[in-house]
Amino acid sequence: MTDDSQRNFRSVYYEKVGFRGVEEKKSLEILLKDDRLDTEKLCTFSQRFPLPSMYRALVWKVLLGILPPHHESHAKVMMYRKEQYSDVLHALKVVRFVSDATPQAEVYLRMYQLESGKLPRSPSFPLEPEDEVFLAIAKAMEEMVEDSVDCYWITRRFVNQLNTKYRDSLPQLPKAFEQYLNLEDGRLLTHLKMCSAAPKLPYDLWFKRCFAGCLPESSLQSWRLACPLLDGGFEWTPGPWTPGTPLPHPRHTGTRCQ
């Protein structure tokens, strides 16, 4: 049996017994062994398959430009990222905007506001809508990224990319959502239209937040929108929104959202 035949046989076998991700993980590990990481291939992989949790932060940092493609530079660049994180956090503590008791997601928000020149005069000022979006995404990111420095940088770069690269795509998403819903659950779409609920769905909230903070936690376990968005594919299809698993299922979105 040739090497290709053996690999194909293993892929079919693993998929049948529920270990579909074995071959994908090996493929990702091969990509990550290169001295210079191929960001285009990593983007393609992220669109097609779920990222293993042990490699998720690394891949996201490379794709978001937090780390350069060259492995040899990673340690030094992350050292600078950590120093910047510590300096900004220290400044916020000095002006008493945050403390050790401040929720971590709120700390990320204040750091982002300070670095972008949008820190309000007082922490008691009400949050702007864009701040609520950042906060929701930061909380969702916390569920997937353990390291606080990584979580801040990934959230910050993700939100920046969402606001710049994909802002013009947002108005197109409600129509794309209805088209997808019609394919997946036409009866539900018909019901929503009959009771005049379709136009009242909180599309703006859903898409600006990428569903973060809009769905039950059980649904957010598969919240991995960053992977496909990094590749420039902001479309409503089963693949790009959640590699491997559609997120969210239209019936859950239409009936269980907050």
Automatic annotation (TrEMBL):
The lineage of its organism: Eukaryota, Metazoa, Chordata, Craniata, Vertebrata. This is TBC1 domain family member 7. Residues 50-233 form the Rab-GAP TBC domain. It is found in: Cytoplasm, Cytosol; Cytoplasmic vesicle; Lysosome membrane. It comes from Piliocolobus tephrosceles (Ugandan red Colobus). Keywords: Cytoplasm, Cytoplasmic vesicle, GTPase activation, Lysosome, Membrane. PANTHER family: TBC1 DOMAIN FAMILY MEMBER 7. Non-catalytic component of the TSC-TBC complex, a multiprotein complex that acts as a negative regulator of the canonical mTORC1 complex, an evolutionarily conserved central nutrient sensor that stimulates anabolic reactions and macromolecule biosynthesis to promote cellular biomass generation and growth. The TSC-TBC complex acts as a GTPase-activating protein (GAP) for the small GTPase RHEB, a direct activator of the protein kinase activity of mTORC1. One of its GO terms (cellular component) is cytosol. GO terms for molecular function: GTPase activator activity. It comes from the Eukaryota. GO terms for biological process: negative regulation of TOR signaling. InterPro entries: Rab-GAP-TBC_dom (IPR000195), Rab-GAP_TBC_sf (IPR035969), TBC1D7 (IPR039842), TBC1D7_dom2 (IPR043039).
